[in-house]
Amino acid sequence: MKVLRGIGLRVSVLAAVLITWQLITVLVDDPVNWPTFADVIGRFWTRWLTNPDAWASSLAPSLARLLAGWAGAVLVGVATGTAIGLSARARDVLGPIVHFLRAIPPPALLPLFIVLLGIGDGMKAVMIAFGAVWPILLNTADGVASVEPLHRDTGRAFRLPFRDELWRVILPAAAPRIFAGLRISLSIAVILMVISEMVATVNGVGFELVQAQRGFRSLDVWATIVLLGMLGYALNAVLALIEAGALRWHRGATRTAE
Amino acid sequence: MIRLLRGVTGAAILFILLELATRADLVNATYLPPASTILAATGQIATDPAFLGNVGGTLLAWGLGLLSAAAVGIPLGLLLGSSRRSYLASTTAIELLRPIPSVALIPLLILLLGRGLDMRVLLVAYAALWPILFNTIYAIREVDALARETARAYGLSRLAILRRISLPAAAPFIYTGVRISAGIALILAISAELIAGGGPGIGTWMISNSETGVPRELLYAGIVVTGLLGLAINGLLSAGERRLFRWHHRVRAAQ
Protein backbone atom coordinates (compact mmCIF):
# COMPACT_ATOMS: atom_id res chain seq x y z
CA MET A 1 0.00 0.00 0.00
CA LYS A 2 2.77 2.37 0.98
CA VAL A 3 4.68 1.49 -2.19
CA LEU A 4 1.58 2.21 -4.28
CA ARG A 5 1.13 5.58 -2.61
CA GLY A 6 4.79 6.39 -3.31
CA ILE A 7 4.39 5.58 -6.99
CA GLY A 8 1.13 7.54 -7.10
CA LEU A 9 2.87 10.58 -5.65
CA ARG A 10 5.77 10.30 -8.09
CA VAL A 11 3.61 10.27 -11.20
CA SER A 12 1.00 12.75 -9.94
CA VAL A 13 2.35 15.88 -11.68
CA LEU A 14 2.99 13.97 -14.90
CA ALA A 15 -0.52 12.52 -14.83
CA ALA A 16 -2.02 15.96 -14.13
CA VAL A 17 -0.14 17.49 -17.08
CA LEU A 18 -1.15 14.70 -19.47
CA ILE A 19 -4.80 14.73 -18.40
CA THR A 20 -4.93 18.53 -18.77
CA TRP A 21 -3.35 18.23 -22.22
CA GLN A 22 -5.87 15.61 -23.28
CA LEU A 23 -8.86 17.57 -21.93
CA ILE A 24 -7.84 20.89 -23.46
CA THR A 25 -7.04 19.45 -26.88
CA VAL A 26 -10.31 17.50 -26.97
CA LEU A 27 -12.17 20.73 -26.09
CA VAL A 28 -10.23 22.85 -28.59
CA ASP A 29 -10.86 20.21 -31.23
CA ASP A 30 -8.15 21.35 -33.64
CA PRO A 31 -6.30 18.08 -34.37
CA VAL A 32 -4.03 19.62 -37.01
CA ASN A 33 -2.41 22.21 -34.74
CA TRP A 34 -3.16 20.82 -31.28
CA PRO A 35 -3.18 17.01 -31.37
CA THR A 36 -4.40 15.16 -28.30
CA PHE A 37 -1.99 13.22 -26.13
CA ALA A 38 -3.63 9.94 -27.11
CA ASP A 39 -3.16 10.76 -30.81
CA VAL A 40 0.52 11.61 -30.27
CA ILE A 41 1.19 8.32 -28.49
CA GLY A 42 -0.77 6.46 -31.17
CA ARG A 43 1.31 8.06 -33.91
CA PHE A 44 4.53 7.40 -31.99
CA TRP A 45 3.47 3.76 -31.78
CA THR A 46 2.70 3.29 -35.49
CA ARG A 47 5.26 5.75 -36.92
CA TRP A 48 8.29 4.73 -34.85
CA LEU A 49 7.94 2.05 -32.19
CA THR A 50 6.32 -0.70 -34.30
CA ASN A 51 7.80 0.36 -37.62
CA PRO A 52 11.03 -1.56 -38.41
CA ASP A 53 11.42 0.27 -41.73
CA ALA A 54 11.68 3.59 -39.93
CA TRP A 55 14.27 2.10 -37.56
CA ALA A 56 16.41 0.99 -40.47
CA SER A 57 16.01 4.10 -42.63
CA SER A 58 16.16 6.83 -39.95
CA LEU A 59 17.15 5.64 -36.51
CA ALA A 60 20.11 3.49 -37.60
CA PRO A 61 21.92 6.22 -39.60
CA SER A 62 21.32 8.72 -36.79
CA LEU A 63 22.71 6.37 -34.15
CA ALA A 64 25.72 5.51 -36.31
CA ARG A 65 26.62 9.21 -36.70
CA LEU A 66 26.04 9.83 -33.02
CA LEU A 67 28.21 6.94 -31.85
CA ALA A 68 30.98 7.60 -34.38
CA GLY A 69 31.20 11.26 -33.38
CA TRP A 70 30.94 10.58 -29.67
CA ALA A 71 33.55 7.78 -29.79
CA GLY A 72 35.91 10.20 -31.52
CA ALA A 73 35.27 12.77 -28.80
CA VAL A 74 35.93 10.17 -26.07
CA LEU A 75 39.24 9.04 -27.60
CA VAL A 76 40.56 12.53 -28.28
CA GLY A 77 39.16 13.98 -25.05
CA VAL A 78 40.57 11.33 -22.70
CA ALA A 79 43.96 11.18 -24.45
CA THR A 80 44.46 14.95 -24.68
CA GLY A 81 42.92 15.54 -21.27
CA THR A 82 45.34 13.05 -19.67
CA ALA A 83 48.33 14.69 -21.36
CA ILE A 84 47.21 18.15 -20.26
CA GLY A 85 46.37 16.94 -16.76
CA LEU A 86 49.82 15.40 -16.28
CA SER A 87 51.77 18.54 -17.14
CA ALA A 88 51.15 21.90 -15.52
CA ARG A 89 53.14 23.51 -18.32
CA ALA A 90 50.89 22.01 -21.01
CA ARG A 91 47.87 23.21 -19.02
CA ASP A 92 49.19 26.77 -19.02
CA VAL A 93 50.18 26.78 -22.70
CA LEU A 94 47.02 25.16 -24.07
CA GLY A 95 44.55 26.57 -21.52
CA PRO A 96 43.55 29.76 -23.38
CA ILE A 97 43.23 27.94 -26.71
CA VAL A 98 41.03 25.23 -25.18
CA HIS A 99 38.87 27.80 -23.41
CA PHE A 100 38.40 29.78 -26.60
CA LEU A 101 37.46 26.74 -28.69
CA ARG A 102 35.09 25.53 -25.99
CA ALA A 103 33.38 28.92 -25.85
CA ILE A 104 32.31 28.63 -29.51
CA PRO A 105 28.69 27.42 -29.58
CA PRO A 106 29.10 24.24 -31.71
CA PRO A 107 26.07 24.89 -33.99
CA ALA A 108 27.83 28.09 -35.14
CA LEU A 109 30.39 25.82 -36.82
CA LEU A 110 27.76 24.08 -38.90
CA PRO A 111 27.74 26.49 -41.89
CA LEU A 112 31.54 26.37 -42.08
CA PHE A 113 31.66 22.57 -41.77
CA ILE A 114 29.10 22.25 -44.56
CA VAL A 115 31.23 24.44 -46.81
CA LEU A 116 34.45 22.57 -45.90
CA LEU A 117 33.32 18.96 -45.54
CA GLY A 118 30.08 18.78 -47.48
CA ILE A 119 26.87 17.37 -46.05
CA GLY A 120 27.93 13.73 -45.68
CA ASP A 121 28.15 11.50 -42.61
CA GLY A 122 31.78 12.52 -42.05
CA MET A 123 30.83 16.16 -41.56
CA LYS A 124 28.19 15.19 -38.99
CA ALA A 125 30.56 12.94 -37.06
CA VAL A 126 33.23 15.69 -36.99
CA MET A 127 30.62 18.22 -35.88
CA ILE A 128 29.40 15.94 -33.06
CA ALA A 129 32.96 15.13 -31.99
CA PHE A 130 34.00 18.80 -31.95
CA GLY A 131 31.10 19.81 -29.73
CA ALA A 132 31.24 16.81 -27.41
CA VAL A 133 34.99 16.71 -26.80
CA TRP A 134 35.32 19.67 -24.40
CA PRO A 135 33.53 18.38 -21.28
CA ILE A 136 35.48 15.11 -21.58
CA LEU A 137 38.80 16.85 -22.14
CA LEU A 138 38.41 19.35 -19.32
CA ASN A 139 37.03 16.83 -16.82
CA THR A 140 39.80 14.34 -17.64
CA ALA A 141 42.48 17.03 -17.27
CA ASP A 142 40.95 18.08 -13.96
CA GLY A 143 40.63 14.51 -12.69
CA VAL A 144 44.17 13.57 -13.70
CA ALA A 145 45.64 16.75 -12.21
CA SER A 146 43.97 16.12 -8.86
CA VAL A 147 45.07 12.49 -8.32
CA GLU A 148 46.33 12.09 -4.72
CA PRO A 149 50.07 12.77 -4.91
CA LEU A 150 50.50 10.06 -2.26
CA HIS A 151 49.02 7.45 -4.59
CA ARG A 152 51.35 8.39 -7.42
CA ASP A 153 54.35 8.55 -5.09
CA THR A 154 53.50 5.09 -3.75
CA GLY A 155 53.34 3.76 -7.30
CA ARG A 156 56.70 5.30 -8.05
CA ALA A 157 58.21 3.96 -4.84
CA PHE A 158 57.27 0.48 -6.04
CA ARG A 159 58.99 1.35 -9.34
CA LEU A 160 55.77 0.95 -11.29
CA PRO A 161 56.49 1.60 -14.99
CA PHE A 162 54.70 4.71 -16.29
CA ARG A 163 52.30 2.65 -18.38
CA ASP A 164 51.10 0.73 -15.32
CA GLU A 165 50.95 3.91 -13.27
CA LEU A 166 48.73 5.44 -15.96
CA TRP A 167 46.35 2.49 -16.27
CA ARG A 168 46.28 1.38 -12.65
CA VAL A 169 46.65 4.57 -10.63
CA ILE A 170 45.99 7.74 -12.62
CA LEU A 171 43.09 6.79 -14.89
CA PRO A 172 41.13 4.85 -12.24
CA ALA A 173 41.51 7.75 -9.82
CA ALA A 174 40.29 10.18 -12.47
CA ALA A 175 37.48 7.86 -13.64
CA PRO A 176 34.59 9.45 -11.67
CA ARG A 177 35.40 12.87 -13.15
CA ILE A 178 35.84 11.38 -16.62
CA PHE A 179 32.42 9.72 -16.41
CA ALA A 180 30.84 13.01 -15.35
CA GLY A 181 32.31 14.51 -18.52
CA LEU A 182 31.05 11.60 -20.62
CA ARG A 183 27.52 12.13 -19.36
CA ILE A 184 27.48 15.85 -20.27
CA SER A 185 29.07 15.18 -23.65
CA LEU A 186 26.55 12.48 -24.55
CA SER A 187 23.62 14.88 -24.29
CA ILE A 188 25.55 17.48 -26.31
CA ALA A 189 26.21 14.80 -28.94
CA VAL A 190 22.48 14.04 -29.25
CA ILE A 191 21.72 17.75 -29.73
CA LEU A 192 24.38 18.10 -32.41
CA MET A 193 23.22 14.95 -34.18
CA VAL A 194 19.69 16.35 -34.42
CA ILE A 195 20.72 19.82 -35.54
CA SER A 196 23.23 18.60 -38.14
CA GLU A 197 20.55 16.34 -39.60
CA MET A 198 18.09 19.20 -39.67
CA VAL A 199 20.32 21.44 -41.74
CA ALA A 200 21.81 18.95 -44.14
CA THR A 201 20.91 15.35 -44.88
CA VAL A 202 18.67 13.01 -46.75
CA ASN A 203 17.88 10.71 -43.83
CA GLY A 204 17.97 10.46 -40.05
CA VAL A 205 15.65 11.38 -37.20
CA GLY A 206 16.46 15.11 -37.42
CA PHE A 207 15.71 15.04 -41.14
CA GLU A 208 12.33 13.35 -40.55
CA LEU A 209 11.54 15.99 -37.95
CA VAL A 210 12.19 18.87 -40.34
CA GLN A 211 10.32 17.12 -43.16
CA ALA A 212 7.28 16.71 -40.91
CA GLN A 213 7.45 20.40 -39.99
CA ARG A 214 7.73 21.50 -43.63
CA GLY A 215 4.72 19.32 -44.50
CA PHE A 216 2.78 20.80 -41.54
CA ARG A 217 2.36 17.26 -40.15
CA SER A 218 2.32 18.31 -36.53
CA LEU A 219 1.38 14.84 -35.28
CA ASP A 220 4.60 13.45 -36.80
CA VAL A 221 6.58 16.32 -35.25
CA TRP A 222 5.18 15.43 -31.81
CA ALA A 223 5.78 11.70 -32.32
CA THR A 224 9.39 12.30 -33.35
CA ILE A 225 10.00 14.51 -30.31
CA VAL A 226 8.71 11.65 -28.14
CA LEU A 227 11.15 9.33 -29.93
CA LEU A 228 14.08 11.69 -29.32
CA GLY A 229 13.13 12.03 -25.66
CA MET A 230 13.10 8.22 -25.32
CA LEU A 231 16.41 7.99 -27.16
CA GLY A 232 18.01 10.54 -24.83
CA TYR A 233 16.61 8.69 -21.83
CA ALA A 234 17.84 5.29 -23.07
CA LEU A 235 21.35 6.57 -23.89
CA ASN A 236 21.65 8.11 -20.41
CA ALA A 237 20.45 4.89 -18.82
CA VAL A 238 22.98 2.77 -20.75
CA LEU A 239 25.82 5.09 -19.81
CA ALA A 240 24.70 5.05 -16.17
CA LEU A 241 24.81 1.23 -16.21
CA ILE A 242 28.32 1.23 -17.69
CA GLU A 243 29.38 3.80 -15.11
CA ALA A 244 27.92 1.80 -12.23
CA GLY A 245 29.82 -1.28 -13.42
CA ALA A 246 33.09 0.54 -14.06
CA LEU A 247 33.05 2.47 -10.79
CA ARG A 248 31.84 -0.31 -8.49
CA TRP A 249 35.29 -0.58 -6.90
CA HIS A 250 35.25 3.19 -6.41
CA ARG A 251 32.21 3.24 -4.20
CA GLY A 252 33.62 0.32 -2.21
CA ALA A 253 36.96 2.09 -1.85
CA THR A 254 35.49 5.39 -0.69
CA ARG A 255 33.26 3.57 1.78
CA THR A 256 36.21 1.83 3.44
CA ALA A 257 38.10 5.10 3.55
CA GLU A 258 35.39 6.84 5.51
CA MET B 1 52.35 35.90 -14.44
CA ILE B 2 54.20 32.89 -15.78
CA ARG B 3 50.85 31.27 -16.57
CA LEU B 4 49.77 34.30 -18.60
CA LEU B 5 53.09 34.27 -20.44
CA ARG B 6 52.72 30.57 -21.28
CA GLY B 7 49.13 31.08 -22.42
CA VAL B 8 50.12 33.92 -24.75
CA THR B 9 53.00 31.80 -26.09
CA GLY B 10 50.62 28.93 -26.84
CA ALA B 11 48.19 31.17 -28.71
CA ALA B 12 51.05 32.83 -30.63
CA ILE B 13 52.53 29.48 -31.67
CA LEU B 14 49.14 28.29 -32.93
CA PHE B 15 48.67 31.53 -34.85
CA ILE B 16 52.09 31.24 -36.52
CA LEU B 17 51.58 27.55 -37.36
CA LEU B 18 48.22 28.27 -39.01
CA GLU B 19 49.72 31.20 -40.90
CA LEU B 20 52.70 29.17 -42.13
CA ALA B 21 50.58 26.14 -43.08
CA THR B 22 48.59 28.19 -45.58
CA ARG B 23 51.46 30.38 -46.75
CA ALA B 24 53.55 27.27 -47.46
CA ASP B 25 50.61 25.72 -49.35
CA LEU B 26 50.35 22.79 -46.90
CA VAL B 27 46.64 23.58 -46.61
CA ASN B 28 44.48 24.88 -49.42
CA ALA B 29 43.89 28.58 -48.67
CA THR B 30 40.32 28.39 -49.95
CA TYR B 31 39.61 25.97 -47.10
CA LEU B 32 41.66 27.57 -44.36
CA PRO B 33 42.65 31.18 -45.03
CA PRO B 34 45.85 32.44 -43.35
CA ALA B 35 45.38 33.36 -39.69
CA SER B 36 46.21 37.01 -40.37
CA THR B 37 43.47 37.20 -43.04
CA ILE B 38 40.95 35.75 -40.57
CA LEU B 39 42.06 38.25 -37.94
CA ALA B 40 41.64 41.15 -40.38
CA ALA B 41 38.18 39.88 -41.39
CA THR B 42 37.24 39.62 -37.71
CA GLY B 43 38.19 43.25 -37.22
CA GLN B 44 36.22 44.17 -40.31
CA ILE B 45 32.92 42.53 -39.28
CA ALA B 46 33.31 43.50 -35.61
CA THR B 47 33.11 47.15 -36.68
CA ASP B 48 30.40 46.63 -39.30
CA PRO B 49 27.06 48.03 -38.02
CA ALA B 50 25.07 45.50 -40.08
CA PHE B 51 26.88 42.58 -38.45
CA LEU B 52 26.60 44.15 -35.01
CA GLY B 53 22.84 44.33 -35.59
CA ASN B 54 22.90 40.54 -36.01
CA VAL B 55 24.90 40.15 -32.79
CA GLY B 56 22.27 42.33 -31.10
CA GLY B 57 19.48 40.11 -32.44
CA THR B 58 21.14 37.00 -30.98
CA LEU B 59 21.81 38.71 -27.65
CA LEU B 60 18.19 39.88 -27.38
CA ALA B 61 16.78 36.34 -27.68
CA TRP B 62 19.58 35.09 -25.40
CA GLY B 63 18.90 37.64 -22.67
CA LEU B 64 15.11 37.38 -22.70
CA GLY B 65 15.27 33.59 -22.72
CA LEU B 66 17.76 33.44 -19.86
CA LEU B 67 15.68 35.89 -17.80
CA SER B 68 12.52 33.86 -18.38
CA ALA B 69 14.34 30.66 -17.39
CA ALA B 70 15.53 32.28 -14.16
CA ALA B 71 12.07 33.72 -13.47
CA VAL B 72 10.56 30.23 -13.69
CA GLY B 73 13.48 28.08 -12.55
CA ILE B 74 14.42 29.82 -9.31
CA PRO B 75 10.92 29.94 -7.70
CA LEU B 76 10.17 26.41 -8.91
CA GLY B 77 13.52 25.22 -7.57
CA LEU B 78 12.83 26.86 -4.21
CA LEU B 79 9.51 25.03 -4.01
CA LEU B 80 10.86 21.65 -5.09
CA GLY B 81 13.98 22.05 -2.95
CA SER B 82 12.14 22.88 0.26
CA SER B 83 9.24 20.45 -0.01
CA ARG B 84 10.09 16.78 -0.34
CA ARG B 85 6.50 15.94 -1.35
CA SER B 86 6.38 18.39 -4.25
CA TYR B 87 9.81 17.20 -5.38
CA LEU B 88 8.70 13.55 -5.40
CA ALA B 89 5.46 14.46 -7.14
CA SER B 90 7.29 16.05 -10.07
CA THR B 91 10.26 13.66 -10.43
CA THR B 92 8.74 11.49 -13.17
CA ALA B 93 7.58 14.50 -15.18
CA ILE B 94 11.04 16.09 -14.95
CA GLU B 95 12.87 12.86 -15.75
CA LEU B 96 10.82 12.40 -18.91
CA LEU B 97 11.07 16.03 -20.07
CA ARG B 98 14.76 16.60 -19.45
CA PRO B 99 16.25 14.10 -21.93
CA ILE B 100 14.37 15.69 -24.87
CA PRO B 101 17.12 17.38 -26.90
CA SER B 102 16.07 21.03 -26.93
CA VAL B 103 16.85 21.57 -30.63
CA ALA B 104 14.21 18.92 -31.43
CA LEU B 105 11.62 21.43 -30.24
CA ILE B 106 12.54 23.96 -32.95
CA PRO B 107 10.25 22.43 -35.65
CA LEU B 108 7.39 22.17 -33.18
CA LEU B 109 7.81 25.77 -32.06
CA ILE B 110 7.97 26.93 -35.69
CA LEU B 111 4.60 25.25 -36.29
CA LEU B 112 3.05 26.68 -33.13
CA LEU B 113 4.59 30.16 -32.94
CA GLY B 114 6.13 30.91 -36.33
CA ARG B 115 9.73 32.10 -36.77
CA GLY B 116 9.67 35.27 -34.69
CA LEU B 117 11.42 36.38 -31.53
CA ASP B 118 8.91 34.70 -29.19
CA MET B 119 9.78 31.30 -30.66
CA ARG B 120 13.51 31.87 -30.09
CA VAL B 121 12.97 33.16 -26.57
CA LEU B 122 10.81 30.17 -25.61
CA LEU B 123 13.37 27.71 -26.98
CA VAL B 124 16.25 29.42 -25.16
CA ALA B 125 14.20 29.54 -21.97
CA TYR B 126 13.35 25.82 -22.13
CA ALA B 127 16.97 24.77 -22.55
CA ALA B 128 18.28 27.24 -19.96
CA LEU B 129 15.69 26.19 -17.38
CA TRP B 130 17.29 22.88 -16.36
CA PRO B 131 20.67 23.92 -14.89
CA ILE B 132 19.00 26.78 -12.99
CA LEU B 133 16.23 24.51 -11.69
CA PHE B 134 18.54 21.70 -10.56
CA ASN B 135 21.14 23.98 -9.00
CA THR B 136 18.39 25.75 -7.05
CA ILE B 137 16.86 22.45 -5.83
CA TYR B 138 20.20 21.06 -4.67
CA ALA B 139 21.33 24.36 -3.18
CA ILE B 140 18.19 24.69 -1.05
CA ARG B 141 18.55 21.09 0.15
CA GLU B 142 22.16 21.63 1.19
CA VAL B 143 21.36 24.63 3.36
CA ASP B 144 22.68 23.99 6.85
CA ALA B 145 19.84 22.36 8.77
CA LEU B 146 21.24 23.65 12.06
CA ALA B 147 21.04 27.26 10.89
CA ARG B 148 17.45 26.72 9.79
CA GLU B 149 16.45 25.01 13.04
CA THR B 150 18.08 27.78 15.06
CA ALA B 151 16.10 30.39 13.17
CA ARG B 152 12.92 28.41 13.74
CA ALA B 153 13.69 28.14 17.45
CA TYR B 154 13.92 31.95 17.55
CA GLY B 155 10.42 32.07 16.12
CA LEU B 156 11.16 33.13 12.54
CA SER B 157 8.36 32.35 10.09
CA ARG B 158 8.90 30.01 7.13
CA LEU B 159 9.05 32.95 4.76
CA ALA B 160 11.55 34.80 6.94
CA ILE B 161 13.74 31.68 7.11
CA LEU B 162 13.62 31.39 3.33
CA ARG B 163 14.50 35.05 2.85
CA ARG B 164 17.16 35.42 5.54
CA ILE B 165 18.77 31.96 5.78
CA SER B 166 18.03 29.70 2.84
CA LEU B 167 18.24 32.19 -0.05
CA PRO B 168 21.53 33.81 0.97
CA ALA B 169 23.09 30.38 1.61
CA ALA B 170 21.83 29.01 -1.71
CA ALA B 171 22.53 32.12 -3.81
CA PRO B 172 26.09 31.21 -4.91
CA PHE B 173 24.98 27.82 -6.26
CA ILE B 174 21.92 29.29 -7.95
CA TYR B 175 24.21 31.82 -9.60
CA THR B 176 26.44 29.01 -10.86
CA GLY B 177 23.34 27.45 -12.43
CA VAL B 178 22.58 30.74 -14.19
CA ARG B 179 26.18 30.90 -15.47
CA ILE B 180 25.96 27.36 -16.92
CA SER B 181 22.58 28.20 -18.45
CA ALA B 182 24.01 31.33 -20.06
CA GLY B 183 26.32 29.21 -22.22
CA ILE B 184 23.53 26.79 -23.15
CA ALA B 185 21.25 29.73 -23.96
CA LEU B 186 23.77 31.10 -26.45
CA ILE B 187 23.99 27.69 -28.17
CA LEU B 188 20.21 27.48 -28.51
CA ALA B 189 19.81 31.10 -29.64
CA ILE B 190 22.20 30.43 -32.53
CA SER B 191 20.67 27.00 -33.29
CA ALA B 192 17.20 28.53 -33.61
CA GLU B 193 18.56 31.10 -36.07
CA LEU B 194 20.30 28.43 -38.13
CA ILE B 195 17.18 26.28 -38.44
CA ALA B 196 14.40 28.86 -38.50
CA GLY B 197 16.19 31.88 -39.98
CA GLY B 198 13.98 34.97 -39.87
CA GLY B 199 15.02 38.08 -37.97
CA PRO B 200 18.57 39.33 -37.37
CA GLY B 201 21.01 36.97 -35.65
CA ILE B 202 24.52 35.57 -35.96
CA GLY B 203 23.12 32.21 -37.08
CA THR B 204 20.95 33.83 -39.75
CA TRP B 205 23.97 35.78 -40.97
CA MET B 206 26.13 32.65 -41.13
CA ILE B 207 23.70 30.39 -42.91
CA SER B 208 22.87 32.99 -45.57
CA ASN B 209 26.58 33.74 -46.07
CA SER B 210 27.50 30.08 -46.42
CA GLU B 211 24.81 29.68 -49.07
CA THR B 212 25.88 32.70 -51.11
CA GLY B 213 29.53 31.65 -51.08
CA VAL B 214 31.19 34.68 -49.51
CA PRO B 215 34.96 34.64 -48.86
CA ARG B 216 35.75 31.88 -46.37
CA GLU B 217 37.54 34.19 -43.97
CA LEU B 218 34.21 35.87 -43.22
CA LEU B 219 32.74 32.56 -42.02
CA TYR B 220 35.81 31.97 -39.85
CA ALA B 221 35.58 35.53 -38.56
CA GLY B 222 31.93 34.96 -37.63
CA ILE B 223 32.99 31.92 -35.61
CA VAL B 224 35.78 33.85 -33.90
CA VAL B 225 33.29 36.56 -32.92
CA THR B 226 30.85 33.96 -31.53
CA GLY B 227 33.67 32.36 -29.54
CA LEU B 228 34.68 35.76 -28.16
CA LEU B 229 31.03 36.41 -27.30
CA GLY B 230 30.88 33.11 -25.40
CA LEU B 231 34.13 33.94 -23.59
CA ALA B 232 32.91 37.44 -22.74
CA ILE B 233 29.59 36.18 -21.33
CA ASN B 234 31.29 33.55 -19.20
CA GLY B 235 34.03 35.97 -18.13
CA LEU B 236 31.57 38.67 -17.07
CA LEU B 237 29.39 36.22 -15.14
CA SER B 238 32.43 34.66 -13.43
CA ALA B 239 33.70 38.11 -12.45
CA GLY B 240 30.24 38.92 -11.09
CA GLU B 241 30.28 35.66 -9.16
CA ARG B 242 33.57 36.50 -7.47
CA ARG B 243 32.39 40.02 -6.64
CA LEU B 244 28.92 39.15 -5.38
CA PHE B 245 29.87 36.14 -3.35
CA ARG B 246 33.27 37.10 -1.97
CA TRP B 247 31.87 36.52 1.53
CA HIS B 248 30.87 33.00 0.52
CA HIS B 249 34.34 32.03 -0.67
CA ARG B 250 35.83 33.47 2.51
CA VAL B 251 33.44 31.45 4.65
CA ARG B 252 34.20 28.28 2.70
CA ALA B 253 37.94 28.87 2.88
CA ALA B 254 37.72 29.36 6.63
CA GLN B 255 35.94 26.04 7.14
Description:
The complex is a heterodimer of chains A (258) and B (255). Chain A has 258 residues and is mostly helical. Chain A has helices at 2-28, 37-49, 52-86, 88-103, 110-117, 121-145, 149-157, 162-199, 205-214, 218-246, 248-257. In chain A, α3 (52-86) packs parallel to α6 and α8 packs antiparallel against α10. The radius of gyration of chain A is 23 Å and the shape is globular. Chain B has 255 residues and is an all-alpha fold. Chain B is globular. Classes of the chains: A mainly alpha (258), B mainly alpha (255). At the A-B interface, α1, α4, α5, α8 and α9 of A face α1, α4, α5, α8 and α9 of B.
Which descriptors apply to this entry?
heterodimer, A: 258 residues, mainly alpha, 85% helix, globular, B: 255 residues, 11 helices
What is the residue-mean pLDDT of chain B, rounded to a whole number? 87
Secondary-structure element pattern of chain B, one letter each: HHHHHHHHHHH
Structure classification of chain A:
mainly alpha
Largest sheet, strands/sense/barrel of chain A: none
End-to-end separation of chain B in angstroms reads 29 Å
Number of helices of chain A: 11
Shape of chain B: globular
Largest interface: A-B, 57 and 59 residues
The assigned structural class of chain B equals mainly alpha
- Provide the low-confidence segments of chain B as ranges: none
Helix content of chain B: over 70%
Largest sheet of chain B: none
Estimated helix fraction of chain A: over 70%
Classify the oligomer. Answer: heterodimer
Topology of this protein?
The complex is a heterodimer of chains A (258) and B (255).
Chain A: H1 2-28, H2 37-49, H3 52-86, H4 88-103, H5 110-117, H6 121-145, H7 149-157, H8 162-199, H9 205-214, H10 218-246, H11 248-257
Helix pairs in contact in A: 2-10, 3-4, 3-6, 3-8, 3-9, 4-6, 6-8, 8-9, 8-10, 9-10
Chain B: H1 2-23, H2 35-46, H3 49-82, H4 84-97, H5 105-113, H6 117-142, H7 145-153, H8 158-196, H9 202-212, H10 216-244, H11 246-254
Helix pairs in contact in B: 2-10, 3-4, 3-6, 3-8, 3-9, 5-6, 6-8, 7-8, 8-9, 8-10, 9-10
